[in-house]
Here is the input.
Amino acid sequence: MPTTLDRYRRAIRIHLKPKLGDVPLQRLLPKMFDDLYRQQLEKLSPASVLKNHLIARAALDRVVRWGWLDRNPADRAEAPKLRRT
Here is the structure.
């Protein structure tokens, strides 16, 4: 059974790194995340895309805490909203 860490690593490897992994931290923009989420919504559920957003945001929060960035670009991206049924 995969652990939470395994699921995070898989999400990064499969969903985040291929599109954003080559972009230097200082060049990451909220629009890049918006575009990524829009593309992901064509193949993934809103809940899965939201999880990817939360993983990216948490990782970039650490980057801000370490002083490598002044602001977290994922904070200003528009993550998908979940609809209650």
User: Anything to note?
Assistant: The radius of gyration is 13 Å. The helical segments are 4-20, 30-40, 46-65.
